[in-house]
Amino acid sequence: MDPEILVKRAQLGDKEAFVELIKSLESSLYKVSKAILLSDSECLECCARDDFNCL
């Protein structure tokens, strides 16, 4: 599904749209966190969290 549509649906409270959006970005989120944290274990832990305060 189009990411823009998923964002709009998620903003309206659609939890399934939010999950789908995050799953579609999972690879990018991992790469960014890996560049910042430099440790695979910290990176995986951060990506498993739902608030990303570790970045």
Structural class comes to mainly alpha
Instruction: Write down the secondary-structure element order.
Output: HHH
Q: What is the multimeric organization of the chains shown?
A: single chain
Number of strands: 0
Q: What is the CA-atom radius of gyration, in angstroms?
A: 12 Å
What's the N-to-C terminus distance?
28 Å
- Overall form: elongated
* Count of structural domains: 1
**Total DSSP helices:** 3
Average pLDDT confidence is 84
Sequence stretches where pLDDT stays below 50 over 5 or more residues: none
Largest sheet: none
Helix content: over 70%
Percentage of residues in strands: under 5%
Indicate the topology.
Blueprint: H1 3-11, H2 15-37, H3 40-48
Helix pairs in contact: 1-2, 2-3
Keywords, separated by commas or semicolons:
mainly alpha; 75% helix
Description:
With 55 residues, the chain is mainly alpha-helical. It has one domain. 75% of the residues lie in helices and 0% in strands. The longest helix has 23 residues, at 15-37. It is elongated and about 35 Å long.
